[in-house]
Amino acid sequence: MAALVDIIYGEHTTAGINAEVAGEALWLSAKDLERVSGWAHKHEGFCKADVCIPVPPARAGELVAGNRYNLVALASLLGQPVVADPAHDVWCIGEAAAERRRSLTSLKAPDFELPDLAGRGHRLSDYRGKKVLLVSWASW
Amino acid sequence: MWQALYEELGPEVFVPFAVAFDSGGNAAAEPWIAAASPTYPCVIDRKHIVAELYDMVNVPSAVWIDEQGMIVRPSEPAGVSDAFRKMDRANFSIPPAALAELQGKRKAYQDALRDWVAQGSASRFVPKREEVLRRMHTPSDAHVRAAANFRLGEYLAEHAHRDAAKPYFEEAKRLRPESWNYKRQAWALEDPMKAGGPEFWAAVDALGADKYYPGPDDI
Q1: Burial of B114 by CB count in 10 Å (0-12 exposed, 13-18 middle, 19+ buried)?
Q2: Which of A32, A42, B77, B170 has the CA that lies 20 to 30 A from B118?
Q3: In this predicted model, what pLDDT tens digit does every residue of A89-135 receive, in sequence order?
Q4: Global ipTM
C-alpha cells in the first residue's frame, strides 16, 4: 500500500517520504533510501561512507525488489531496532547496540549538535581543547 | 551551581556543557535557564539523544571529557545525593541531616572538578582506563529498543498524538526500568503535575538500596 511516511533514523527525521508498506516491509526508492539513511545500493551491496555490507543471497528478495529497497530489512541486517506506528505513518530506526558499544568503549566522546533556546546549534566538539563537564538536567 | 565554577576555573580551560532532557522543548526549559542565566552552552535535547549516547539514566548526570575529546569519567550522578527520598512529602521539606549530606556531596564534586582542572590526568579523580570501562554501562539490544520506542513516542506526542504515544513510552519504561529519564519525562508529558505526583513517589518507594552506577565512591 502506497503511503507518505515520516522516518526517524538515528538523530535525523525525514517527513513525507513516498513508501510502499507491505506487512512489516517498508519499500523506498534508491534516492529516498539514501536521503533517509545515508545507505546507497551499489554493486558491492549497501554502502555508506567507506563501509559496504554485502547482500546475503538468501535475503536478497527481502532487501531488494527491482528499484525498491526495504528499509526495515536493511535495519535488521545492520542489527538496528525498528519500531513502527503504521496508523500514524511513522517509523523509527534506532542505533545498533553493537555499534553503540563499540563507540562507547573506545572512550571517544560521541559528538552531537543540539540547539540552545535561541535555536543556535552547539556542537560538543566545538569545545575541543578545553575540559568539558557534560551535564544533564531537566525541568520535570 | 555551574556558573560560579565556570567563572572561577576560567572559560579558556573549562566549560560546562548543559543538556536539558526536555521533550517539552523551549517552553519547558526556558524559565529554568532564564533563572540561572548561564553564559556557558545550554542546549535542549527533546529526544534525549545525549542520554542515549552517554548512558545517562537520571538527572543531573555528568561526564568528564578531556581536551582531546576522550571520556575521563563516564556518566555518574553530578554532585547529588538521594536526600529527596527523606523529604517530608506533606510540606516538601528535607531534614537538616539529609540537606547537609546533599551540600557535602555538591562541595566534594566541585572540589574534584577543581582538582581535575588543576592536575589534568594526574588528578586522583581521573580513573585508569580499565576502571572507566568497568564503570561504564554498555547498551544492550533492550536498551536501544527502549530508545527507539521513546523516540517514536516523543515524535507522536510532539505531533499532537499524545494518546498514541503512551504505549511507546510504556514499552521504553518496560525495557529500561532503571531509566528515570523515561519515567519522569513520560509522566511530565501526560500531565505536568504527575512527575512529582503519586506515581513518582510510588516508584521511589519501590527502589532498593542498589546503585545503578557502580562505585567506588571516589568523590
Answers
A1: middle
A2: B77
A3: 999 999 999 988 888 899 999 999 999 988 999 999 999 999 999 99
A4: 0.89
Number of domains in chain A: 1
Residue A110 lies in a domain: no
Cell numbers describing residue A5:
511516511
**Cross-chain CB nearest to A133 (options B16, B59, B156):** B16
Contact in structure between B116 and B123 (CB atoms under 8 Å): yes
Range of A36's domain?
2-99
Q: Does A120 lie at the interface with B, CB-CB under 8 angstroms?
A: no
For residue A39 the three cell numbers come to: 545507505
Domains in chain B: boundaries: 141-205
Write the burial class of residue A9 (CB in 10 Å: 0-12 exposed, 13-18 middle, 19+ buried): buried
CB contact under 8 A, B144 and A110: no
pTM above 0.80, yes or no: no
Q: Which residue has the cell 575540559?
A: A131
